[in-house]
Write a structure and sequence with these properties.
heterotrimer; A alpha/beta; B alpha/beta; C alpha/beta; A: alpha/beta; four-stranded parallel β-sheet; about 45% helix; globular; B: alpha/beta; Rossmann fold; 2 domains; three-stranded antiparallel β-sheet
Chain lengths: ~140, ~220, ~1050
């Protein structure tokens, strides 16, 4: 789906199901939330897979640095996001397609905001992915 | 162990041009320990290549596998049989593994996914440091167990050069002067007289300057 | 002598050697090297030619060394191990020696990272010491490094090495030098020296090793060209020690270049005196011009006559010689050619003569023919005459003479052009000839053309005959025999003559050249002396020059100047000091005009005046301004200043004078200003300590007013929380004895044989008795348990920020004041003991002084009646200081000192004994360490009934089980094994451990529940566990947790 966004959220940060948010019209329809026990569990490969499987943007929502339930889980996640950004650059992709956000526990607000921001940000990008999607679209219209 | 480092993705995608069916092959030896070519890195590499190829509009079929070692013939046998099914095999093993596949598996087009960096130790998670140069003529008994060949920027044999300052090497303050450390260590071990002896000119033939190296042990040969 | 090099000769003769340095260019321009060599020539004994220093590509040192050698400068070729392996190096060494290079400096080389090709592969086949060994073996043993013999001439080289006295490890540097000497170094050049003291120490160590006897050591020096360069060397060049003094001198200097030379000369003069220093190595990096000056100022300009400098390739002298030779040769060939040409000329002359003869012969033949013809003509003439006579005779009859007359002019007309040039006689002859011819024509029947030809010929012959009487045929300019030899020969000879003269002329030229050089040298010397203001010497030099060449304009000019200057100096000399009086205007430097200089000093004096004015030094200010005005009476600033100074308007700068004047004592104004920050700081610091001052009221009332109701609300809650718990405990209807009734006692009772010491904290009614049990914790049925465990409230001596809200809220209004806090604990929460933690004294934290902390402790102790445990910051040293201070201030015995560790038990144990205070012996979770500390205290003389043990506590989930098992083992040892060294009650400082746990900090949520409940339970459960392990005194924080714990104790006893 055009404008797919995947959000990796830890158990503590995302307590409102994505469906509820979507029903309420709070987040883009294209958002998929993947819950993890802790963002510290997130592997870089999962981020790349999400992009390879059609996501145009990925955000990772971890606990605020000082209140991670597992103390350093969200910091770990943030380092992996940084590594993923490096890989994106090597692929001529905008590193902004992957972002780490730190949110207070149990608040849906920041996640909603992150999803919306990601969507607008993606729309303004010009990289290998936008070009690939354009040519794809062109082929389909033929 | 052997330390390796992932090659940049654009370089890898360059070598994969035209490849439609790929095997990403990891190794559970050194490269797995230094997080460059184990199962996890195979998964990441496959995902990244899939993404890269998707972007260029040339989808690719990728299989993933990780061998116990790529430098022992018995583990390569299945690859020798089935490797030809793939357009290419991207090995995340060190250069040894890639060479060995090329030697043993005719018909398999093997490509390197990592740069083989050095022989090093794992200082902490995510940090490795060169400790040995594999020069084939060990002098560690003379230098308190610290290697000037691998760890001195000029591979000096006879003490610190004039650029040793405050225990740091002149080429980079983040690099310790190994000769300062050798000096301190020999002193602590009461072997200071070693520092007065002139170490003779080295024989570099064993370091590969005498041609490719090989070792034979008759008692172990089949 | 090993190599026969000039440097070796100088050094081995015991003379103080000087070497220089020459960096080859980064291009193929050999002129650069020649120029630099010429600058250095005669001022140094040898010159180092660097080998791509700092790993930047330059012309090779071998090539540049050869070029320098061709200039008559002895090179010290540098060779690094960075760029060549042993094959390349040995090859170059053979070549260098073959081409006359006699000195080799063996280096490892700068790492390629520093150069312009950091990506290159560094070779480093060997290091400098191994290189020395290799070259020595080539020289002395005639062997290549591989062992193969060198057949034929071996390389003869004087070997040098480098030494850096300023690199680390310093103590190893002389030993490394010893290795270089052992490997074959004959001389050593050191790294650039600025830190002479360190070098002196290095040389001392070198002498101790006897190295100064084995090797010539040349101290390396470099004139810093600028402050920037010195700073760069100080901060960025590893292994270079530029002292602050050098930096200071350069930054103070008016002319940094001049000062740089001075610094260099100073260092040379200092190192010259250090025993073992055999010379200096002057490295003027891209500043070769400075070398002669440095060498001369250091008194080293008399260099020994160089010897042994023999370029194998061309030198400029050799070029001159070759040119002279070539010229000689050319002259010789020229001379040969001239000879040849001369010979050829002679030959051609001979040929001409022969030709002449031949031509003359031909002409003669022609002449005879003409004569024949003439004879014939004469015959014909005669015939014609005869015929004419006949004709006349015939005419006499018929024709008159008149008729014949017009015919004559007609025939004469044909000869007219010729005839015009002739005399009358000749004309007459011609006329008759013409007549004769006519007749002849008729007679012979010649046609017109024949006739004409004959006639012309005859006319020509005739003319010839007439004009040149001496020579029969002579047209002018033609090579005719007579005059030819005389004209040709001198012409040919004239050419070689100037050529031959040239040789002596050249000799004269050379002489003139020599004289001219002498004159130039003298003039230069004169100019230099003139510059140095040594006028009489300058005059002498110029006069000498004029003696040699009285016409030299420069010398004349110079002489004039020198004389003028000398003349000027004489009158100026007395004037100078007068004007300089009080350094009013030091001599003007060359680069400034006197006006500029004067202006500078006016500004400077005015500045000084203003400074003095600011400082309140009236007299100094007036002096300074006056000096300024004496230089420039019109200067307004100086005038203003003087006015102010005289009016006594002192104090901070002119602009602030007004405000300063308002204060009664302006001179003290700055002092007061300096004090204000302190006085401003004082209340700030005092504020937290003394909440009494009215100023601080504002922040206080806010928490103070609402706090009591809030706490009042909470306090009952705390009590209530305790009450139901107590009720729950009390809910157990049957007592143990009742439940156990009917069971023989010996079935379940295990009497202990030991007894825990009873420790008394405090005095009188509020005294707390800890320990004294003869049974395991709460085993009241097994033995005497006289005292229930107790709980002390922990308070801090500063307001903690990291206490979680559920805990902090109970002390909201009091936390900033330890006294109020303690009172609240006692008054409201009925604390039976207080534990005052003096955490603010931690040297790694707030580091409050011991005295201050002790005062706080004193106030707290005085404010409450219950025992107070004074707990330090767990820094042995600081705690000793603090707790001693406390004992000095606190008179009562209700204080307990803690913690005593193995690091400070002696000092604090003694203090405690002196004041008879109980103490806490703290050890890190270990039975043996706990026992050992008790033994040590006993050995000190302390009774164990004055000791509480702190076994180190972990909260639930944070190592409680470890604490528990250690305490259990100690309790069992004390009670069942009569280990009296361990029969000491425990104090468990658990509050601090519990409340720093993550679980107490995470906010309320569904998963973990209410935060306060969580914390309270964690503290209470930790306490109850420790009670079961034998804890005698709990130190806790949360009132509700304490209430729960006390309820538990009450129920269990």
């Amino acid at each position: 789906m055009k404008g797919d966004i995947v959000g990796f959220c830890c158990n503590y940060t995302a307590n409102v199901p994505a469906e509820v948010l979507k029903e309420a019209g709070l987040v883009p329809e294209t958002l998929r939330i993947r819950r993890l026990p802790c963002t510290g569990k997130l592997e870089v490969a999962a981020i790349m897979d999400a992009l390879a499987d059609g996501a145009e943007g990925v955000f990772v929502a971890g606990c605020r640095v000082d209140e991670c339930h597992n103390l350093t889980g969200s910091q770990r996640a943030s380092k992996r996001v940084a590594y993923a950004k490096e890989m994106l650059k090597e692929l001529d992709l905008d590193p902004g397609r992957v972002e780490m956000i730190f949110v207070p526990r149990g608040e849906a607000g920041p996640i909603i905001q992150a999803a919306r921001e990601m969507k607008t940000r993606i729309a303004g990008m010009d990289d290998a992915m936008t070009r690939a999607l354009e040519s794809e679209g062109a082929e389909q219209s033929k | 162990m052997i330390i390796a480092e992932r090659k940049p993705l654009n370089e890898i995608l360059g070598m994969l041009s035209g490849v439609r069916k790929l095997l990403v092959l990891g190794c559970r030896g050194c490269v797995a320990v230094c997080s460059a070519g184990g199962d996890k890195e195979v998964g990441l590499m496959a995902a990244a290549i899939r993404l890269g190829r998707k972007l260029s509009g040339e989808p690719i079929e990728i299989h993933e596998d990780t061998l116990v070692r790529q430098c022992d013939p018995e583990y390569l046998e299945p690859l020798a049989e089935k490797g030809g099914d793939y357009d290419a095999v991207l090995s995340l093993a060190c250069g040894v593994g890639i060479n060995f596949i090329a030697d043993r598996c005719p018909g398999v087009r093997v490509l390197p996914g990592v740069n083989t960096s050095f022989y090093g130790a794992n200082l902490s998670s995510g940090e490795w440091k060169e400790m040995c140069a594999g020069c084939g003529a060990c002098v560690l008994h003379l230098t308190g167990g610290l290697c000037p060949v691998a760890r001195c920027a000029k591979s000096l044999s006879n003490g610190p050069c004039g650029g040793s300052q405050g225990g740091r090497c002149e080429i980079d303050p983040s690099v310790p002067c190994i000769w300062q450390q050798i000096h301190d260590r020999l002193k602590a071990l009461n072997q200071e007289e070693r520092l007065r002896e002139i170490m003779p000119v080295r024989d570099w033939t064993t370091a590969g300057h005498g041609g490719p190296r090989r070792r034979l042990r008759e008692d172990l040969l089949p | 002598m090993i190599s026969g090099s000039n440097l070796e000769r100088v050094l081995s003769s015991g003379q103080f050697a000087v070497t220089g340095e020459l960096g080859p260019p980064k291009n193929s321009n050999y002129e650069v090297i020649r120029e630099k060599a010429r600058i250095l020539k005669g001022h140094v004994d040898a010159v180092n030619i660097t080998d791509c220093q700092t790993a930047i590509v330059r012309m090779s040192s071998l090539t540049a060394a050869l070029i320098a050698l061709s200039e008559g400068v002895e090179p010290v070729m540098q060779m690094t191990c960075r760029d060549r392996n042993r094959i390349g190096m040995q090859a170059d060494i053979l070549g260098a020696s073959a081409l006359g290079i006699r000195n080799l400096l063996c280096l490892t080389g700068d790492h390629q990272k520093f150069g312009n090709h950091p990506q290159s592969k560094g070779v480093f086949d060997m290091d400098s010491i191994q290189l020395l060994g290799m070259v020595r073996a080539m020289r002395d043993e005639h062997r290549f490094q591989c062992g193969e013999e060198i057949k034929g001439p071996e390389p003869k080289l004087f070997l040098g090495a480098a030494a850096n006295p300023f690199a680390d490890p310093f103590e190893y540097r002389p030993l490394r030098l010893a290795k270089k000497v052992d490997a074959g170094a004959g001389f050593v050049q050191t790294q650039i020296i600025y830190n002479v003291e360190k070098f002196r120490k290095f040389m001392e160590m070198v002498r101790d090793l006897g190295l100064d006897e084995k090797v010539y050591i040349l101290a390396g020096v470099t004139p810093p060209k600028s402050l920037g360069m010195a700073r760069y060397m100080k901060n960025f060049v590893p292994g270079l020690d530029v002292t602050d003094d050098v930096i200071q001198r350069l930054s103070d200097a008016k002319d940094p270049r001049e000062e740089g030379i001075n610094i260099c000369v100073d260092i040379i003069n200092q190192v010259k005196e250090i025993p073992g220093v055999a010379g200096v190595h002057v490295m003027a990096i891209e500043w070769e011009q400075a070398v002669p000056e440095i060498v001369s100022r250091a008194g080293l300009s008399k260099r020994p006559e160089p010897a042994g400098i023999q370029p194998a390739l061309v030198s400029s002298d050799a070029i001159d010689e070759a040119v002279a030779q070539a010229r000689e040769q050319a002259e010789a060939t020229l001379r040969e050619k001239i000879e040849k040409v001369k010979a050829e000329a002679q030959a051609s002359r001979d040929l001409v003569v022969k030709e002449k003869e031949r031509v003359a012969g031909e002409i003669y033949a022609l002449k005879t023919k003409v004569e024949e013809l003439t004879g014939m003509v004469k015959n014909k003439d005669a015939q014609v005459k005869e015929l004419t006579a006949e004709l006349k005779e015939a005419k006499t009859a018929a024709v008159t003479v008149q008729q014949a007359a017009p015919a004559a002019p007609a025939s004469g007309q044909a000869a007219a052009p010729v005839a015009a040039q002739l005399g009358a006689r000749e004309q007459a002859a011609l006329r008759s000839l013409g007549l004769g011819l006519d007749a002849l024509r008729k007679a012979l029947g010649l046609d017109e053309a024949q006739y004409e030809a004959l006639k012309r010929f005859l006319e020509a012959e005739f003319l010839l005959h007439f004009n040149i009487s001496p020579a029969p045929v002579q047209p002018a300019g033609e090579p005719v025999p007579g005059p030819v030899p005389t004209t040709v020969e001198p012409a040919v000879q004239a050419q070689p003559q100037p050529e031959a003269l040239q040789a002596p002329e050249e000799a004269a030229d050379e002489e003139a050249e020599r004289r001219h050089k002498q004159v130039v040298r003298l003039v230069a010397k004169g100019n230099l002396l003139l510059h140095k203001q040594d006028y009489s010497a300058a005059i002498e030099a110029f006069e000498q020059a004029l003696e040699i060449d009285s016409e030299d304009p420069k010398a004349k000019d110079g002489l004039q100047k020198a004389k003028a200057a000398a003349g000027a100096q004489a009158p100026e000399a007395p004037a100078g000091p007068a004007e300089e009086g009080g350094e009013l205007l030091p001599p003007c430097p060359d680069e400034l005009t006197p006006d500029e200089w004067k202006f500078k000093w006016v500004v400077r004096w005015t500045g000084r005046g203003n400074v003095a004015l600011y400082r309140g030094e009236q007299q100094a200010a007036i002096d300074a301004f006056k000096k300024a005005l004496s230089l420039d009476p019109e200067n307004e600033k100086a005038r203003d200043g003087l006015k102010k100074a005289e009016a006594g308007e002192l104090g901070p700068g002119p602009e602030e004078t007004k405000t300063a004047a308002e204060t009664p004592e302006p001179e003290q104004a700055p002092v007061e200003a300096a004090e204000t920050p302190e006085s401003a700081q004082a209340p700030v610091e005092a504020a937290p300590a003394e909440p009494a001052p009215p100023k601080v009221e504002k922040p206080v009332p806010e928490p103070a007013a609402p706090a009591p109701p809030k706490v009042e609300k909470k306090a009952p809650v705390a009590a209530a929380a305790g009450a139901p718990a107590a009720e729950a405990m009390a809910g157990e209807k049957l007592s143990l004895s009742e439940r156990a009734s009917g069971i023989p006692e010996d079935l379940f009772v295990e009497k202990c044989t030991g007894r825990i010491q009873e420790v008394v904290l405090g005095e009188g009614d509020n005294a707390l008795r800890i320990g004294g049990a003869q049974a395991l914790p709460f085993h009241v049925f097994e033995g005497d348990v006289p005292n229930p465990p107790q709980v002390a409230y922990e308070i801090l001596d500063f307001e903690p920020e990291e206490w979680p809200e559920p805990l902090a809220q109970y002390y909201k209004g009091e936390m900033s004041d330890p006294v109020a806090w303690a009172r609240k604990c006692v008054d409201e929460y009925k604390a039976k003991a207080i534990c005052l933690s003096l955490l603010s004294t931690d040297p790694n934290g707030m580091n409050r002084s011991s005295a201050e902390a002790a005062q706080v402790a004193q106030k707290v102790v005085e404010a409450v009646d219950v025992p107070v445990i004074i707990w330090g910051c767990n820094n042995a040293e600081k705690d000793t200081e603090t707790l001693r201070e406390v004992t000095n201030l606190v008179g009562t015995k209700k204080v307990c000192l803690s913690p005593l560790t193995d690091a400070n038990y002696r000092a604090l144990g003694a203090t405690a004994m002196a004041f008879q205070l109980p103490v806490v012996a703290a050890t890190p979770i270990d039975v043996n360490l706990a026992k050992q500390l008790n033994i040590l205290l006993e050995n000190l003389g302390m009774q164990l009934n004055q000791v509480l043990m702190d076994p180190s506590i972990g909260a639930v989930g944070y190592g409680l089980e470890y604490s528990y098992s250690v305490m259990e083992r100690i309790t069992l040892a004390a009670l069942t094994q009569q280990d009296d060294k361990l029969s000491v009650p425990f104090i468990c400082n658990l509050g601090r451990e519990v409340w720093k746990a993550k679980e107490c900090r995470l906010p309320s949520d569904d998963l973990l529940g209410d935060q306060e409940r969580r914390g309270v339970l964690l503290e209470a459960i930790t306490a109850s566990s420790l009670l079961l392990a034998g804890g005698g005194l709990m130190v806790m924080r949360h009132p509700r947790a304490i209430a729960l714990t006390e309820a538990l104790i009450q129920g269990m006893m």
